[in-house]
Amino acid sequence: MTPFTSGQWQPGVRDGGNIYPFRIRKEPKKNLRIWLQDGADDIENAGGSVPLQNIAVANSLKLMDYDFHLSFGVGGHSPMQGSSELPESMAWLWRGYDAARTQDTYAPDEHEKALPVFRVHIFNRESR
Question: What is the mean pLDDT of residues 78-103?
């Protein structure tokens, strides 16, 4: 599955995941904490670019003041990187958990707020 690309898009029937960066920016903010993980060698096909869409989603989350983390490596479309990060991602997602509280409001760390949006650097193309 390529969640943030148009792989599932059927014109006039079903939207594709490629609309999520725009939905995040246009719809009311939800109280969520989000961990994104991808790699530069993930799927690129006619349905879209998974790495570029994940960066677009991360930028939308940042601009809308969500509490999120983007872990971006060099891997492809496999569970290896995500599995290796599972302990770190669970600790990050559940940080500050208190069973006595019935609700919480998620906001980005002050350090994250000060950081710029993500930028793409092309590094795996031959120069001709």
Answer: 90
Q: Which residue has the tokens 């995040």?
A: 24
Per-residue model confidence (pLDDT) at position 3:
67
> How many of the other CB atoms lie within 10 Å of CB of 33?
17
How far apart are the C-alpha atoms of 76 and 43, rounded to whole Å?
A: 7
Residue 67: domain span: 17-98
Is 47:6 a contact under the CB 8 Å cutoff? Answer: yes
Q: Structure pTM?
A: 0.85
DSSP 10-53: BTTTB--GGGHHHHHHHSPP---EEEEEEETTS-EETTEEHHHH
What whole-number distance in Å separates Cα of residue 54 and Cα of residue 49? 9
Does any domain span residue 87? Answer: yes
**Which position has the higher pLDDT, 106 or 124?**
106
- 20-24, 27-31, 96-100, 123-127: range with lowest mean pLDDT: 123-127
Q: Domain for residue 63, yes or no?
A: yes
The answer to the question of residue 124 being in a domain is no
Q: Evaluate whether residue 109 is within a structural domain.
A: no
